[in-house]
Structure prediction request, 427 residues.
Amino acid sequence: MDRFLVAKRGEDNLKTATMEVQMVTTKLIKPASPTPSHLRTLKLSPLDRQFSFMVKPCALYYYPGGGGGDQVVERRKRLETSLSETLSRYYPLAGRYMKETHSIDCNDEGVEYLEAKVEGLPLSQLLSRRDEMIPQLDHLSGGETSTPLASIQVTWFDCGGIVIAVRIHHMVVDGFTAASFFNAWATASREGLEEGELPMPPPKIFGMDKLVTRRLVLDEAKILSLKAKARDHDRREPSKVEVATALIWRALMGVNQAKHGQLRTSLASHTVNLRPKIVPPLPPLCCGNLLTKVAARFTVEDSFDMALPDLKDLIGLLRDAAKHSIGEVPRQDLYSTAIKYRNEVHESIEKGEEDVFLFTSWCRFPFYEADFGWGKPVWISRTHPPAQLTVLLDNPGGDGIEAWVTLNPPDMLQFLQDDHILAFTSF
Prediction:
């Protein structure tokens, strides 16, 4: 039984109560129908192999959907049955990694499926203390996926609330595919899956010190204020991802300026989904890692008085990098294109002569559309990543951003004191 502390706020004081996450069952869920023999082996692309030791975690939180004990029993059965049906379509997740051949044996052995329960504490109480939960989210986020490629944990609360968490090896999915899988499973639970195409395989073609993660919330009003502050009238209005990236990039530059005693050249590297750029287009359900990194560069020569740049200047650099980087990508050039841009970022990291800040955005990925039949999730979370990284997520309303920033502890303290971070975010 896992235990961790969650704070409860009373009217006049703050108390601490112990929440127990109790594991109830562990099993393997296999695809409802066998994988065809000609799809038994999935050869990983060189892009996929770069993620062979990483796991992509995600958790969706649902308020009670009504109904009593019988309804809970029915939902439990429905979740398992619909997962099995969905795995017939996303069959690589139920396979096993073959290290010697860099491939997935799609042998239908199944995904790890854990059920857990929480007693005495409603889900709403946890969600009211989200930021204090971040270090403990692993307790709700599935197993270690040491052998299965995916581990799923469904945690039931006495109030009827549910947390559905998935850990999937990055070698078989990126964020786009993870969102597609969640929504396919939700559709199967809610209304069943129609016959459809199987996901296509991808086209052929670092030890860290202790880190901490903080969640910064940029609500709609703050996003609008940032857009007004950063707007260049010669350009279109910046997007919420652009203003959030520029805000955090500038603050991180300030942290390193204080650390080194001078302003330094830096890169803001964003992960880019290559799917919309591939020609001819790929089917929507094309799994694997179809992504690369594109970096915007700020050089100290751009700052005449060694002051931190304006937000609008950083947004201009982000746009220029996106505009002049990747256009259409022929399928036969996919691997070389992805590696070219990834290597540019990695070479900068290895040289250490300039600062490199890593970003990835899951905004507009349809996780909040994953309705299993009792409503859409009320919150989406990431867990603590093993790298210094900023992950941008939509807020529940879709009009703001939650930025999950991971840094080493001294840098985090400095980062949270940045004047712009204090002015435009809450945490």
Summary: Confidence is low (pLDDT under 50) at residues 1-17, 202-209.
